[in-house]
Design a protein that fits this description.
three-stranded antiparallel beta sheet, transmembrane helix, five-stranded mixed beta sheet, 8 strands, Immunoglobulin-like, alpha+beta, 1 helix, membrane, about 25% helix
């Protein structure tokens, strides 16, 4: 009889511990995810930087998805500017161009962009101000082009978020293709 009692008690203990291990693992994963989300939210909040810009923001801008772990990256120094753009822009005549023009989260600056034809200097596109973490996926160009391939240059201006003064610029060569 005592053997059966001992077997029942062992079975009860096994059932209790059978649920304990998965519960502890679940709580560990939940705590880790919570800590990562908290850390990301402080970075995605742009580390307390205040951008009190009310005018000049580009209305075409939307959130720039950089992935969850981009929030843990380092913020750029004041002498470094990051940007995103599609280097081969294709569009139908008069249609929107897939620019994929973005101001990454790690920037300390507002960003303004301009695309000009290399041959004539004609402005094809000019953006308003982009906050860090914002992008313009597509836009209709300011100038209508005939079908063909054009060499162009994108110029990205770093704008001080407090004074709105232009601090400098960088350029990127592009190819604009208007499909026929």
């Amino acid at each position: 009889m005592s053997l059966r009692v001992a077997q029942r008690q062992n079975a009860r203990r096994a059932r209790k511990t059978e649920h304990t291990v998965p519960l502890i693992l679940f709580l560990l994963v939940l705590t880790t995810c919570g800590a990562l989300l908290w850390a990301a939210s402080t970075r995605l909040g742009l580390c307390g930087r205040e951008f009190s810009v009310a005018e000049g923001l580009d209305s075409r801008a939307e959130s720039l998805y950089e992935g969850f772990f981009a929030a843990f990256g380092r913020e750029n120094d004041r002498d470094r500017l990051s940007y995103r753009i599609n280097r081969r822009i294709e569009l139908e005549p008069g249609g929107p161009a897939a620019l994929c023009l973005g101001n990454p989260l790690r920037n300390s600056f507002l960003l303004r962009a301009e695309i000009r034809l290399d041959e004539s200097g004609t402005v094809l596109f000019s953006s308003g101000l982009l906050l860090p973490g914002r992008q313009i996926r597509s836009a209709v160009l300011d100038t209508t082009l005939e079908a063909g391939e054009y060499a162009a240059t994108a110029r990205f201006y770093a704008i001080d978020p407090v004074s709105l003064a232009e601090l400098g610029w960088v350029s990127e060569p592009l190819t604009v293709t208007v499909l026929s």
